[in-house]
Design a protein that fits this description.
Two copies of one chain form a homodimer. Chain A has 322 residues and is mainly alpha-helical. Chain A has one domain: Farnesyl Diphosphate Synthase (Orthogonal Bundle). The N terminus of chain A is likely disordered. Chains A and B meet through helix 3, helix 7, helix 8 and helix 9 of A and helix 3, helix 7, helix 8 and helix 9 of B.
Chain lengths: 322, 322
Amino acid sequence: MPSSRLRKTHRLPGRFFFLKYRHMSATTQFDLPDFLATRTEAVNRALNRFLPSEKTRPATIHKAMRYSLFAGGKRMRPALCLAAAEACGGSDAAALPLACAVECIHTYSLIHDDLPAMDNDDFRRGKPTNHKVFGDGIAVLAGDALLTQAFEITAQAKGWPRYPHRDLILEIAKASGSLQLVAGQVADLEGEGKKISAGELRYIHERKTSALLCCSVRLGGMSANCTPTQLRALTDFGYHVGLAFQVIDDILDVTQTSEQLGKTAGKDTKAQKATYPAIVGLEKSRKIAGQLTAKAFAALKAFKGRAGALEALAEFLLKRDK
Amino acid sequence: MPSSRLRKTHRLPGRFFFLKYRHMSATTQFDLPDFLATRTEAVNRALNRFLPSEKTRPATIHKAMRYSLFAGGKRMRPALCLAAAEACGGSDAAALPLACAVECIHTYSLIHDDLPAMDNDDFRRGKPTNHKVFGDGIAVLAGDALLTQAFEITAQAKGWPRYPHRDLILEIAKASGSLQLVAGQVADLEGEGKKISAGELRYIHERKTSALLCCSVRLGGMSANCTPTQLRALTDFGYHVGLAFQVIDDILDVTQTSEQLGKTAGKDTKAQKATYPAIVGLEKSRKIAGQLTAKAFAALKAFKGRAGALEALAEFLLKRDK
């Protein structure tokens, strides 16, 4: 369970449906703020090492890549990757390149999603988006270069006989490709302003969020030479955390004020984006979020007490009020 | 040397500086049209197998990916990859996945280069560009998905102890990343309308063209478990063919009519793009093209008569009038 400081920040007044899953927490003393601080620093140092410097020619592209990569992202995917490695008895050192690779993929997808041709967002995390600073052309190329960089970094990770580079690359390529991450963005674009079903919304969330979260924890496990049983548990965990996260995001968008969220509330509704509350109602959305959350925590039983970091991260992601 | 039919089509009236390299051709009877026809068909079949069908959900993205991938490209990079494999005693079967991967990279780069945010081209190979048919958002995503697909396909190629998947992936990632292919496009964008030096123009051509040509032949060699000496020769060959190709392209843009080229002549000049003739003059450009061509052919000596296909392809690319 997160430390008291974190619990205070992320306790959800009025959203007690989460409370019943609290007892599943195996590690009552896990220091998540410390875990996040140390791992974020390690990931930032590694990313800084992997990426060409801002002065490397052509300077513009490296400035643009670094601008978005170091724009204050919470490094949730890398943290999940490292936590999964720990749960399987692995080391941060072996998982770090893969953690950096998934962060490059995540950042590339944000840069491209923000483009005028897609979601047309001017701000992200309170800063002007990549194309607002560098122009649309460079933003497209910065995304391209980060996507490519992810594979270059993955190729430099340590492989195992059970998980050779071939498998690590396939893992990232499949999670990011036309059947997953890209598919999610396509379906999202095509669904805008249309009435879509709960099944279609789930299809989008599975691809836009679950695919890369799943990939992050699976790669963490693979870096630790995990057993096939552990890999299945991680898959199950990542999938449900991703879906639950999105449903909760949809709920918060309609229940919280902009001030509480620290970003524009009701944005999805305004942009005519389909959300769970809009399709199935608020109460049913909360029930679904609760079920998905329960499934995510249940998957962690396979790690017999070693999944403290994963559990704390899931609580951080799923028991939040913004 | 190409067959008489091909020689006739590609003989260059008035551009006799090439003739002195003719004697280097080791294979006087190489049937290039047959080689290109059979290999193009094999590559198309393989690409069709590797890519999700047009009906696979979301259909839009797979239609968009296939639209550009099967838009009548000459498959020069795949052909070079297969020819390099043959020169090193390898098989088409082992080289085919890598040949398909480089074609996916090439196609992705064209889709993104054509975007309004970059070169803003409405037509390519006489057909509307990807974004004109599918919209800018889907075109960005189709490029992203093809780039990702290239790595997925590479991971499925056969590796060798000397050239494991790790190396194959690094080969493609480095050739396509922020220091090569993307760097070339960035420098090209930034150089538009500016007076640039011959050195800067060479920097662009090396990255926009040579990097992926080099990668194509190197991957072909690697698929054949080539010797380090052969790999060096292929690198040398790919690099010089790429550069020579670009210089010749620049020359043809100013010396040939639109009718002769089958595309708009003088386009580079009009777009205020730097060209060799504009920077160093037509005569010096021809001299440079001749020198680069000579170096490309010289690199093939390492293959002692087995480089018939590579030699014929180089002649096809460098001794052309359009």
